[in-house]
Design goal:
By secondary structure, the chain is mainly alpha-helical. Helix 3 packs antiparallel against helix 4. The longest helix has 82 residues. The radius of gyration is 41 Å and the shape is rod-shaped.
Length: 194
Amino acid sequence: MTIKIKEPSALVESVLTLDNYLSEIVRLGDKIESMDLKSDFDFEQAKKLMNRFTECGQGVAEQVVLMSQHLNEARAKAEKAGQAVAERAAILENRHNEQQLKMQEFRQLGEKVATLTMSLNDLKRPEGAVLSQEERSQLSTRLTEFDTQLEPLIQEAQGLRENAHKAKIKTLEQSTESLIQRLTSVRKRLETFR
């Protein structure tokens, strides 16, 4: 399998050059070994091949040094990239933890609102029922209690919405906005009981 690289890195170029030198050394070694060395021409050819063999040996040594340098550079780049990724991972984990914390706050607030809404249903009287003075007084007291509980919930929801907006947690911001609308609706329902 041959892999073609459009723009090889310095490390790849060193490896390819080293591979060429090593292949050439093997080829030259085989050729030198197989020569008869019977004539002056054979000796001249062998001498040329030996010189080329020596050049290739020096090329191998140079490429090994270069390849070592390129490997060190590549390792340093990889370590730097790894460090950058680790820093990003920490940022992502912090973001995730922040979102989880805010979502937990939202769930707790939602539970408080649900509890308040359920207890509001207890105030409903059958249609056409006439309340005694004592029942009206109790209802007024309970409505005041509900109103007292409702305002801090609305403020908490608004604060959570602002925090979600600042943290750019769109889903939480939208969910909190819905909860604020729900609380506003509860407040209007309270008015109908008065």
